[in-house]
């Protein structure tokens, strides 16, 4: 994932996304998703550029970007952990795993670790409830986690 | 198409992938090539196999031999023995264990799952979801052919009405009636939308239908379009379901190539075009008007209703919005007739229901059974009893917004009418079964936390009510509850129901209401005696920090 947030890269990424989906209001969400995936988040420059090429007020672009959980408007760490905190995972022992995760990372939900490696987020159901508790590290889903496995799972990421 | 003599399925659920199923798959590809078998044997990945004890799995049909857990180095031996020499490689076979309902046709052969009846999941796990030929061989696009060549739109709606099919998304609205509203709405342009924004915690039935049988939804949507007079459709699928999205896109291309989508379908003069629109992570977008806003590229905030989408939907045009499971029922109903469909389930709720069974039970997974089965039957037959010999305490139906079912309602038939009479709702089909180790205050806290997180914030009762209820519950769980809290919670639950703009807020209070009805004593113990009977709540006496 390109982490280059200098002006040129952002503009290029936005323009590529807009030409892939076309500059229409109904494509705003796919465009924002794409930019968020490419840059790790949607920086202010990108909001400005989207607003300009799509002729949509920047306030509205921001209001859409900040509404959806899969679009980030803040910088994230190299790896994003999304921990499912819905009831099925909670009942299956999610609380103990969550505590182990907080202990291991030493950051609060929503925060990024000082070394820029981890961002911890909570998420609603990921749709794999039969194997709860579940967490997502970047695009990798881990199911049936117990607290002892948390350390080993995190070890796998550079 | 080429005739394949065997079909090999490789499990690719998250658990299997973690254990190396991708490597096994690529080794299989290589080995089949090496033995020159690639043309005779089809190879596909399936994600709905519930054999975590033995994953990664490889299943070989038609013999239905299950191999696992497999290591990549076993692949050569497996291919040589079973597929080349034709002998079962018994040393690699999975240990025998009764399968849960996930692979219906194996369990059906063994007769291990009584009463299981597959209509919407008939093909899931049985066919290669990437192959339109597989779908066609298994009765696919037959209903569409019949509809377009022999039926008028009004006849189609009539059959759906007579079948008694009710919306499977949670609300249980009669499907045929909804189709009728859209067909009768004024204007030329209409839309059909498939609501695949399955986000209700504990529900993943739609994912399995979309991943396992994507063509069934395409076929159903073309039929729906013909019936209501729409020539364009959208499948709104949640952003997290990337595999389902990819399979749908592929299926749409195949259907277009074969002429089941596009212009002049079956030479009938009927045109239908279909788009896939991915969500971006918002529970509220499962609400139909929020979903429509989201397709239009806006924040997913629900519209006031009325007017309903049936008259003023997508871009203000009449729009039919149906859930995935509802649509999956459409082709079988039109193929076999309304009377056939009514032979399953109960008179007021015909057909089957897909349940996802979760929680403190021995077997978690998914079953499709006729409407009207009871919770006790689900727990004893499919879930194989409570885990660790614990006792049943409560079940939550239909995800976060569903009802809390106490043990006194364990024998109430699960159909829309019986549950409505008992004052509870069935919801989307999730069954979260909790043992006596669960604390109701803790559970309510988790549920309210979900709603305060997912509330879109547009209307005050929902935005403030859920936040306030969460704070009160949090205080109770820390041993700081006061006697007026129970009253406040009941009031909030009532306000949420009466004053919220959309279904999210209206149902957010229902677990609270049920807990106050059935588990009042346990909540009171927290407040007056400062004791959590289940021993779950922290009861620290300190004010918790709430985010």
From TrEMBL, chain A:
GO terms for molecular function: 2 iron, 2 sulfur cluster binding; metal ion binding; oxidoreductase activity. InterPro entries: NADP_DH_HndA-like, NuoE-like, NuoE_dom, NuoE_N, Thioredoxin-like_sf. Its cofactor is [2Fe-2S] cluster. [2Fe-2S] cluster binds at residues 84, 89, 125, 129. Pfam families: 2Fe-2S_thioredx. Keywords: 2Fe-2S, Iron, Iron-sulfur, Metal-binding. Binds 1 [2Fe-2S] cluster. It comes from the Bacteria. NCBIfam families: nuoE_fam, PRK07539.1-2. PANTHER family: NADH-QUINONE OXIDOREDUCTASE, E SUBUNIT (PTHR43342), POTENTIAL NAD-REDUCING HYDROGENASE SUBUNIT (PTHR43342:SF2). Belongs to the complex I 24 kDa subunit family. This is NADH dehydrogenase subunit E. It comes from Pelolinea submarina.
TrEMBL record, chain B:
One of its GO terms (molecular function) is 4 iron, 4 sulfur cluster binding. Keywords: 4Fe-4S, Iron, Iron-sulfur, Metal-binding. Gene3D superfamilies: 3.10.20.600, 6.10.250.1450, Glutaredoxin, NADH-ubiquinone oxidoreductase 51kDa subunit, NADH-ubiquinone oxidoreductase 51kDa subunit, iron-sulphur binding domain. InterPro entries: NADH-UbQ_OxRdtase_51kDa_CS (IPR001949), Nuo51_FMN-bd (IPR011538), Nuo51_FMN-bd_sf (IPR037225), Nuop51_4Fe4S-bd (IPR019575), Nuop51_4Fe4S-bd_sf (IPR037207), Thioredoxin-like_sf (IPR036249). CDD domains: TRX_Fd_family (cd02980). It comes from the Bacteria. Residues 441-486 form the NADH-ubiquinone oxidoreductase 51kDa subunit iron-sulphur binding domain. PANTHER family: NADH-QUINONE OXIDOREDUCTASE SUBUNIT F. Belongs to the complex I 51 kDa subunit family. This is NADP-reducing hydrogenase subunit HndC.
